[in-house]
Amino acid sequence: xxxxxxxxxxxxxxxxEYADAARMLAKAMVDDNIGLVYGGGNVGLMxxxxxxxxxxxxxxxGVIPKALMDKEVGHIGLTRLHIVKDMHERKALMAELSSxxxxxxxxxxxLEELFEVFTWSQLGFHNKxxxxxNVNGFYDGLIAFLxxxxxxxxxxxxxxxxxxxxxxxxxxxxRIKDFKPQYYDKLLDPATAGKVI
Length: 197
Known about the structure:
By secondary structure, this protein is of the alpha/beta class.
């Protein structure tokens, strides 16, 4: 595992536990010699995890659109900072540079990035692990909703299970390292005897 892409908030959130978890994740990654790939910002949880990775002597690679860099939210103290044209290029490069993905607590942007790589996995476009760092139950509602989607037969249980979730960074990284990629055809439902649904 060379590097992990971490999606997280540009705010620190309501609880100090979120920033604590970002620092713990940074330490777990550096201890395991895993580089950080992230959105390149110096604010919120993005800034917290990047600062901690650098403080601990790890490698942090940021990818930020020029429009955000121009607003002076880009982190200039990283190992590498890629300035790209737009959000599409940003997400594609972050995925290309990463061996796996972790979503920490965050807002709409974090969720959008998470679901994009989850969709890519479901479609077989990549076979990298995807994890939720479920700090203080932050993602409990999302996990329950995905089970509802499975129950309503818009998502197969095997596909839902590809999204790993743990409450601590160390446990999540271990599960990501143990991840065995599998591909389940999104269009086939075993309940319909292989008919396309």
